Each structure stands twice: as structure tokens, then as C-alpha cells.
Amino acid sequence: MKITDAKVFVGGPGKNYVTLKIMTDQGVYGLGDATLNNRETLPAAYLRDYLIPNLIGMDPRRSEDIWQFFYRGAYFRRGPIAMAAFGAIDMALWDIKGKLANMPVYDLLGGKSREAALVYAHATGADLPDLMDSIARYIEQGYKAVRVQCGIPGMPTASYAVPDETGSTGDYITDFSGIRPKVEIWDTDRYLRFMPAALADIRDRFGPDLKILHDVHHRLLPREAAAFAKAVEPVGLYWLEDPTPGEDQEALRLIRQHATTPIAIGEVFNSIFDCNRLIENELIDFIRIAVTYAGGITHARRIVDLAGLHHVRTGFHGAPSHSPISMAAQHHINAWAPNFGIQEYLVLGTPECDALFPSEHRLEDGLFHVSDAPGLGVDFDEAEAARYAYQPGSHPVVRLEDGTLWNY
Ligand code: GCO
Ligand code: MG
């Protein structure tokens, strides 16, 4: 069996999804997602210019060897662009494997360990009452876990993942007005004075059963993060995410020594070598990698297995930048992984998105039911895809009030 061709599409409804379609001489095709948010053209170019010409003629069933060929063959290892491109190929090969076996990917991994998987939604508010309304709406829809992000009184601009004013909506991750980033202003002192009490109010209002998550988005220094994690212990957070930037892994030890609040990190990691020490030293509780830029199912599975040895559960990244293809790949791992924790979930199911990526996957009552269709269980409509083109966009950058550049 041979790979005969592969194509890359960039575009989608409100997002630059990077979709890979691998064709074979047996008529079976596989789909992968290489979307690297706000840098989408780069994995697409790597696929088109180097990986696809090498892929043609290979046996698609040999997904392990193909992964090793590209990873080791690159010589310059790791990095999100390369790992997203390898990840897309890998997902597509698992999709093909499942279709050949007439089995959903979760069965190839070892079968279902649960009937459905817990997900969390993103609640956000310009201020605390606005956030409370947003949380209440998700609970009404059946969600059992909600990430809560709130505007901070006196903060010069809206901060990460909150609207500028009450009721306004929009894409808080990507600004599509061009590739020059807009600037957010951050003030750690105001955040630290406000957020612990706001989280306590949320717990009081919604009671003990709601799973509450909060994303610091890399903004704190290690000592500040340790103090914050300690201050919010009585709230009983499900997790505190990215309290400090991922590069300084010793910072996680300081947080651990001071607080029992569960820590989630890893959405910017792309290799097992970014997190093996954190996992082995049991400095985190949830690993946040994504199958997209952590090298596909083949590599993500290795991280999940290592994590399982150390009581670290999965909490895969699921920002809206992931297409339904990589989300499906994650849902198959979630169905199988013995150490599954939770899945970040944003409703992609607009009519436009469903038309582009038809599938039988479904969310019900805050739980995700993975489709039993062979492979990943998502299709890709090329006629629909022709309606979309690449649109340049960017993440905001963050500065302190005196102009110092900070962490988005
Ligand atoms: C999350 C993330 C995202 C990122 C985004 C960057 O927890 O979902 O922090 O919102 O900001 O993926 O591209
Ligand atoms: Mg995050």
C-alpha cells in the first residue's frame, strides 16, 4: 500500500485551520490538523515543501517509522512548527489505519475506558457579575466544569480572555486586523488583589459541585504564583493553569512546596522532553499538551503513558484554534487514556464548521461522546473549503504600565 498524494488547505470559518489530506492507492484517505495558531502558514509550508514530497510512495500503515523518519531526519529536533506538521501527518495515518481496520481510533489504542469524557467550557466576563451570568449559562447547558476569566477592576485594558465591556463577544485570541499585534496592559498587583476573592465568590454562588478552573496565562512570577495558589486553596479549584511561563520548570517546585492547588501546564509544550522532568518529579497534576503541536497521536500517547506513571492526568488543550480533526484525535485518546482528566472544549459546531468538517461526535450534558465511525470519524468537504482563504491574524502582546514587555 502506498501514499499517492497529499494536499494542504489553509482556511476556515473564522480560523485559519491547516488541514492535511493524505491519499492512498487503495482509495482510503486520512485527515490531519496542523493548525499552529496565528502562525498557520509555517507548518503548511513545511508540509508542502518538504514533508509531502517525501511522504509520497511511503506505506501509510507504517506510522511509527514515518514519524521517526521525519523527526530524526529533520536533525533539528522539536519545535512547534515541525511538531505540528508531523502531528498532522500522524493523525492522518491513524485515520487511515482506522478506516482500513474498520475500527474507531480509540479501539486501536486499547478501547474505551469510559463511556464519555468530561469537558470544560470557557466562561468570561468584563466584570464579576458578567462572569457569574456567563457561568450560569454554561451550567444551564449541562456543563459540569467551567474555566472562569474575569475583567480586573482598574486594569488599564481588558486582560487575557475577557471582553472589553459587558456583553461584548468575539475572538479574544486572534486579532484579524493584521499581523501587527494589539497591546494589552497588565498589572499583577491589581490581579492579585482581586482574583482570589472573585474565585471565592464564584464558589459561594455555585456551590461545591461545580468544577472551577482558572488560567493565569503565564503572567505571574514564581513567588507570586505560589502565594496565589495558596490563597485560593479554600476555593478548591479543579486546576490553576499556567501560573508561570513553561520554560522555568523549577518555578513549579516552589508552587508545589507552598500549596496543594492542582497545577495544569503544557499547552505550549511540543515534546516529551519539555515535560518529562515535571512529570517524573510530580510537580504538576495535569498535562496540557495538544496532539497537534505535540507530534500527533504517536508522540502524545508517549506523554500520556509517562504521565500515568506519576498520577498526572490529561487536560488537553482545546482552544478554538484546533480544528475538529485534532479535537477528534484528542477525543479518541480521551476515550482510551486510563489517566484521562478533562478536555478543554469550545463549541466549534457552527453550521459553517459542521459543513466543512462533518462528523457524528457529540457533546451531551457536559460530556463528550466520541463517534464510533472508523478512523477519526471526521470528514472534510473540499467544496466548502474552497470558500475560505488564509487571513493574517495575531495574538496580542502584553506590556506592563511602564512599557515593559510581559507574557501574553
Ligand atoms: C487556553 C489557552 C488559549 C491560548 C491560545 C493561544 O487555555 O485555551 O490559554 O486560549 O491563549 O491557544 O493561541
Ligand atoms: Mg491556557
Task: Describe the overall structure.
The structure is a single chain. Helices cover 36% and strands 18% of the residues. Helix 1 packs across helix 3, helix 3 crosses helix 10 and helix 7 packs parallel to helix 8. The protein has an 8-stranded parallel barrel with strand order 4-5-7-8-9-10-11-12, surrounded by 4 helices. Strand 8, helix 8 and strand 9 form a beta-alpha-beta unit. It is built from 13 helices and 16 strands. By secondary structure, the chain is an alpha/beta fold. It folds into 2 domains: 101 residues, Enolase-like, domain 1; 268 residues, Enolase-like C-terminal domain (TIM Barrel). The site of magnesium ion has 5 residues, from loops.
Question: Can I get a quick summary?
Answer:
This protein is of the alpha/beta class and 408 residues long.
